[in-house]
Design goal:
Elements lengths: L1 E9 L2 E6 L2 E7 L2 H5 L8 E8 L2 E7 L5 E2 L4 E2 L3 E7 L7 H13 L3 E7 L6 H17 L2 E4 L6 H5 L9 E5 L6 H8 L9 H6 L11 E4 L2 E4 L22 H6 L17 H7 L5 H15 L6
Parallel strand pairs: 3-5, 8-9, 8-11, 9-10, 11-13
Antiparallel strand pairs: 1-2, 1-4, 2-3, 4-5, 6-7, 12-13
The structure holds guanosine-5'-diphosphate and zinc ion (ZN).
Keywords: Cytoplasm, GTP-binding, Hydrolase, Metal-binding, Nucleotide-binding, Ribosome biogenesis, RNA-binding, rRNA-binding, Zinc
Subunit structure: Monomer. Associates with 30S ribosomal subunit, binds 16S rRNA.
Pfam families: RsgA_GTPase (PF03193), RsgA_N (PF16745)
């Protein structure tokens, strides 16, 4: 009996990494009875059985799990936004931040393509970077076209962590991963990416090594709706709003129409960004106007 972590799952086989070695395993029927499907990222107990085929016997409790991509026990999500092409989009960034915060996963923001922005664009982006850093987020402005020495400085973000990458198409997710780990050779232009996803291609996810950590090779959070977030949980997904919340006059304050709201006061004093507050209100309206699910 040994313990390890599933790093790849494909066609009924689980590839379990344990002490630096990868073991090909099948799942025992017990999972179907218990309604547990082992996921990539799971810590498991397995029976090495024989050199080329073992059995996963037990899945350890998970700290979290994602459906897309199907990965368990994620430490952090790296949201990739581009400074340009496509334009930096704070509304979309906040949407990703909320989705990630709501899962209890730590977000980190990487802003790419700094090599192709003008001086005035640079000032605008630097302003955003500072704003998000003030909230407490880790933010890096980078270029994947940079030399490897520069990029290596970012390796510390991956050390001993399991990360998923999120971000809209074209912002440079694959380019960044390829730049930091040239062995990956992920496809980087849209045409070959869509070819790789033909009807008969089995979609699977794999944890690949980046620096001393593991990264899911399929981007996460492809559905960007708030169907799984309740209105009264939304303020917890904005750290700076959550911080003011205890000072609101009314318990259960939604920071919208309520009087004596500490959040609105902080916005007036300029302690909370107007834009972030506007995004909070627009997400709140979106959640409140959603049709009941049953
Ligand atoms: P993805 O869809 O997020 O995986 O984006 P890709 O990695 O496929 O990149 C989309 C396009 O942006 C490609 O043409 C890349 O060469 C380009 N690109 C990505 N990152 C950078 C960067 O930091 N600087 C520049 N100049 N181009 C980049
Ligand atoms: Zn309030």
């Amino acid at each position: 009996m040994a313990e390890g972590r599933i790093i790849k799952a494909i066609s009924g086989f689980y590839y379990v990494k344990s002490d630096g070695e990868v073991h090909q395993c099948r799942g025992r029927g017990i999972f179907r009875k218990k309604n547990i499907t082992p996921l990539v990222g799971d810590f498991v107990v397995f029976d090495k059985n024989n050199p080329d085929e073992g059995y996963v016997l037990e899945v350890k409790p998970r700290k979290n799990e994602l459906i897309r991509p199907p990965v368990a026990n994620i430490d952090q999500a790296i949201i990739v936004s581009s400074a340009t092409m496509p334009d930096f989009n704070p509304l979309l960034l906040d949407r990703f931040l909320v989705l990630i915060e709501s899962k209890g996963i730590k977000p980190i923001v990487f802003v790419t393509k700094k090599d192709i922005i003008s001086e005035s664009q640079r000032q605008l982006i630097d302003g955003y970077v500072r704003e998000y850093q003030q909230i407490g987020y880790e933010v890096e402005l980078l270029s994947s076209k940079e030399n490897l020495d520069e990029l290596r400085k970012l390796e510390t973000y991956f050390s001993n962590n399991v990360s998923v990458i999120a971000g809209q198409s074209g912002v440079g997710k694959s380019s960044f991963l390829n730049a930091i780990n040239p062995l990956l050779q992920l496809k980087t232009d849209d045409i070959s990416k869509s070819l790789g996803r033909g009807k008969h291609t089995t979609r699977h996810v794999e944890l690949v090594e980046v620096a001393d950590g593991l990264v899911a090779d399929t981007p996460g959070f492809s559905t960007l709706d708030f169907n799984e977030i309740e209105a009264n949980e939304l303020d917890e997904c904005f750290p700076e709003i959550n911080e003011q919340k205890p000072y609101c006059k009314f318990r259960g304050c939604m920071h919208n129409k309520e009087p004596k709201c500490a959040v609105k006061q902080a916005v007036e004093k300029g302690e909370i960004s107007n834009k972030r507050y506007e995004h909070y209100i627009s997400f709140l309206n979106e959640i409140n106007s959603r049709k009941p699910r049953y």
